[in-house]
Structures are given as C-alpha cells and as structure tokens.
Amino acid sequence: MFVILVYDTAAERNPKVLKTCRKYLHWTQRSVFHGELTAAQYRALTHTLNSVIDPSYDSIVTYTARSPDMIDRATLGATLGGPGEIL
Amino acid sequence: MFVILVYDTAAERNPKVLKTCRKYLHWTQRSVFHGELTAAQYRALTHTLNSVIDPSYDSIVTYTARSPDMIDRATLGATLGGPGEIL
C-alpha cells in the first residue's frame, strides 16, 4: 500500500514521531512523509505512533491507497526530498 | 480527482498560498490541504500557486488520485479539520 503521513504534534514529542516515521517512510517536506508499506508495516507504524503521541493534543493523518500506481505526485517550486524520494 | 497538497513556503508568502489553497481545498492540519477537484480546477490551483511562490525557495507537493474512492484517510489522536472535512 502507498502511505502519505502528515503529523501535527507537540515539539517535545516530535523527535520520537520523526524517528518512527523515518523508520518506515521517506521524508517529503516539513511535517510530511510518504512511502510504500505492507499492511503489516502500516499496522506496526500506527501502533508505534499511537504509543508515542498524546491523543488529546497531537494529530497524525494518514492517506492510503492500495497501490502507488493510483497516486501521482507533482512538485511546484523546489524539490526538498532527496533522490530516493521519487515514486 | 482527489488532491492532497502540502506546502513549505517562506512566511511572507504563506498568506497568499493559504488563501489560494482555501479557495479550492479543505484544510487538514498545519501545512496540509485536501479535497476533490475537477482537472480544470486543479490546473487553475497550480497555475495560481506557481504565480505566487518563489520556485527557487518554496516547495509545494501535490498527491493526486483519479477518485476519492481510491484513498482512505485515518486519524491518530486529535481530529484538527472541522466537520466539512470528512471524505
């Protein structure tokens, strides 16, 4: 499955959120990651994130598609993600 | 088509970027918008954004799918978007 993840979390929890996201996904820009995961990896990612965030304050949204083929990505302006980031 | 838009733009250009995004899309959280657009609306949105940003510094990434049915959205923790935001 293809996953786009955006987070809006308190500064003191950002390092743990970032570390978890980097383990599974590619950084797109600012508070956004994306990547291809198995269903099991996606469950592990969300399970870990749920144990890290304060659900009354932090918010993480995932958009998922069954396949990366279903998603087109376009960049206006500068490309911030590194070379491994191309879909 | 379904559009997820994330922006990373200089503070002085954020108001114009936000105004343009709000005209076409729903706010998800922080620097993220999403919504359903026609191809013509998507072209108009990207055309306006290209005229607003400094392409050597600012970056806007769009992820698009042919239909909202192809995308599942999940929220961990707090829901930040307002009621009109549900897919």
Would you summarize the structure shown here?
2 copies of one chain form a homodimer. Chain A contains 2 helices and 5 strands.
Account of the 3D structure:
2 copies of one chain form a homodimer. The first copy, chain A, has a single domain, classed as Alpha-Beta Plaits. Chain A has 2 helices and 5 strands; from the N terminus they run E-H-E-E-H-E-E. The first copy, chain A, has helices at residues 14-24, 39-52, and strands at residues 2-8, 26-29, 32-36, 59-65, 72-77. In chain A, helix 1 packs antiparallel against helix 2 (39-52). The A-B interface holds A 4, 6, 8-9, 28-32, 34, 46, 49-50, 53-66, 70-80 and B 4, 6, 8-9, 28-32, 34, 46, 49-50, 53-66, 70-80. Chains A, B: Belongs to the CRISPR-associated endoribonuclease Cas2 protein family. Chains A, B: Pfam families: CRISPR_Cas2. Chains A, B: Mg(2+) binds at residue 8. Chains A, B: Its EC number is 3.1.-.-.
